[in-house]
Amino acid sequence: MPTPIVIVSDALPGDAVAALEAVCDVRRVDGRDREALLAALPAADALIVRSGTRVDAEVLEHATRLRVVARAGVGLDNVDTATARALGVTVVNTPDANSVSVAELTVGLVVASVRRLTRAARSVGAGEWRRADFAGSELSGRVLGIVGFGRVGRQVARRLAAFDMRVLVHDPYADTLGDDVHATGLDDLLAVSDVVTLHLPRTPATAGLIGARELAIMKPTAHLVNTARGGIVDEDALHRALTTGALAGAALDVFATEPPGASPLLALENVVAVPHLGASTAEAQSRAGHEAVRRVLAELAPLSAPAPTTV
Ligand SMILES: NC(=O)C1=CN([C@@H]2O[C@H](COP(=O)(O)OP(=O)(O)OC[C@H]3O[C@@H](n4cnc5c(N)ncnc54)[C@H](O)[C@@H]3O)[C@@H](O)[C@H]2O)C=CC1
Ligand SMILES: O=C(O)CCC(=O)C(=O)O
């Protein structure tokens, strides 16, 4: 029986890859090197990616033996799930692996934005001591608006409620909310929140959800945090809001294009930008890597199972 071939095209923890190597022929390819990826795919029974590999129709059509694409992580916006379905390729992800890490980063970004931490740190690093220039505001007693109340949104709510923030939520699909969390429409949430944080997927329906109109509704003293996906926020409109005093600050883990190149947002004093670090903890990567491997092996099991005996 042939050993299944698994392409790993983004970084996975070594012990998760070792577990896979024990039973599969594992081939590492850089998912950003399109040519190498396309060349490797015809032999593949499975493909494991994070967010660095774009699994579009061309990729799927090259992978004529492919049974499963595993996304070690949550967002499936880099996988053409409709084409996969049409070609009979199963797509799996690891929905619970990194929620806590993303929520913890979100709390860090909220604090960094309202307390101007990155600007203050840069200033001290440059030998300055400008205490009066970096006054911020407390979170206690302020309103937190969470857009998208799934796994990450709920973890963020628990953590920032402990800062004594009042929590509002907008999620048209969430059935249960919990105590001390109040549901509201998007415009109402934007109008009253001191911090708005996004925790919804990027889909055709949510692309550009936070545009010029929505930013204009927000308080000029408010901060916007995005650890969900670039493209949910209109970056040109955000730049305008931040440079005209319509919005106090923004903290961004994700960008419409990654890396964001020379995005003018990066040069703004009132922007805290980090390079898509939400899931970049040892714990989240280990959970996501092992869960992705477990799910791939479950999908490939029929390939390596002994042939049924006939009587
Ligand atoms: N920065 C990072 O490294 C990471 C980012 N993410 C992003 O965070 C997103 C959320 O992750 P999870 O909470 O695990 O997903 P989830 O699926 O548990 O929750 C998403 C929530 O968004 C809601 N939603 C969908 N459309 C909406 C809309 N138009 N308005 C308001 N709410 C809407 C859904 O009802 C759901 O409750 C992921 O889709 C992914 O893009 C996830 C993990 C790591
Ligand atoms: O896997 C990654 O590279 C980032 C994590 C992420 O964005 C996700 O899990 O949706």
Automatic annotation (TrEMBL):
InterPro entries: D-isomer_2_OHA_DH_cat_dom (IPR006139), D-isomer_DH_CS (IPR029753), D-isomer_DH_CS1 (IPR029752), D-isomer_DH_NAD-bd (IPR006140), NAD(P)-bd_dom_sf (IPR036291). Residues 107-278 form the D-isomer specific 2-hydroxyacid dehydrogenase NAD-binding domain. Gene3D superfamilies: NAD(P)-binding Rossmann-like Domain. Catalyzes the reversible oxidation of 3-phospho-D-glycerate to 3-phosphonooxypyruvate, the first step of the phosphorylated L-serine biosynthesis pathway. Also catalyzes the reversible oxidation of 2-hydroxyglutarate to 2-oxoglutarate. Keywords: NAD, Oxidoreductase. It catalyses: (R)-2-hydroxyglutarate + NAD(+) = 2-oxoglutarate + NADH + H(+). This is 2-oxoglutarate reductase. It is an enzyme of class 1 (oxidoreductase). GO terms for molecular function: oxidoreductase activity, acting on the CH-OH group of donors, NAD or NADP as acceptor. Its EC number is 1.1.1.399. Residues 6-298 form the D-isomer specific 2-hydroxyacid dehydrogenase catalytic domain. PROSITE patterns: D_2_HYDROXYACID_DH_1, D_2_HYDROXYACID_DH_2. Belongs to the D-isomer specific 2-hydroxyacid dehydrogenase family.
